[in-house]
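Appendix C reproduces, verbatim, an entry submitted by the partner laboratory led by Prof. M.T., so that reviewers can inspect both the input and the predicted structure.
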Amino acid sequence: MFLMTKIILGIMSGSSLDGLDIGAFKFNFSKNVWAFEIIAFKTFAIHEKLKSQLIIADKLEKTELNELDILYGKFISECIIEFTNEHNLNPELIGVHGHTVFHEPKKGFSLQLGNGKVIAEKTKITTVSDFRNEDIQKGGQGAPLVPIGDNLLFKDYDACINLGGIANVTLKESKVAFDIYYCNRALNYLANKLGFEYDKNGSLSRKGKNNKELLIELNRIKYLKLKGPKSLNNQDFEKFLIPIFNQFKNDKTENLLRTYIEFLADLIAFSATNCKNILVTGGGAHNSFFMEILRKKTNSTTKVPEPIITDSKEALIFAFMAILKKEGKTNIISYYTGAYSDSSAGKVDFPKG
């Protein structure tokens, strides 16, 4: 079978709200092998008024939440139109992962804002969204979603780790994937206390020293003891992690940053034990100090790819999931999520007319 797609857009809105990623990609399927080409990529800033609404989205009433869903869908649409005009693109399909407000697989639902119907109508492009809920209805976690791309697009690696708002891992030989723990969500929270948007290149954490008592408290977190499949939600960051940081508010924030990097690098290294080749992507991969610590803790070849792949990989995979949905192929693998069967997941919205 041979398939060469037209341009597919992938949209990723992460939990750290550090921007809206939009990528344009082409996919080729030949001789049972998938390949991709990155046409263009850009991260759009989310304006402060909208960001402030998204931050408190889990506190809103249902009507207000619906209004914000539509509002964010319009914002995403405006960014898509600007992006396609800037690069003179004519995409055939959009795969969009909106901003997660609630992720509660045990309760049977996950909610991402960024209305797919609005996006399809505004952009005049068929849109696939809401990738998680079908898997959840089958008893799965609805997360992580990236293993399908890790397996089919990045076949040369034993493990793929993404350091986004949440760090997650795909372990191919053991057929396990899960959210490790909060990454940029935690690091940005601490950097904000020092007046910085984020810890660029780890320059803040590099100045710090390990706080052994904090490290002990972090390692007591109950989520770490759970066996996979498992996934995190945004509310537990405020419920469990911030109170731990607050116990040590008299210590220097640089020390908290340094200790958290040590903690997270330990978790990642333990997760990827026995993996020879590890791919690391996401915003956290640009933190050179973090990567120094991580490489010291692993006995693996740990590769950070070229910046455009590092930054666009999640958007790439949502574009890939959208084309798989369009082709009626599996885009969520059940043994990674704990569902009772694979899925060709996603809600498809078509433009009017």
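The chain has twelve helices and 14 strands. Additional entries are available on request from the coordinating office.
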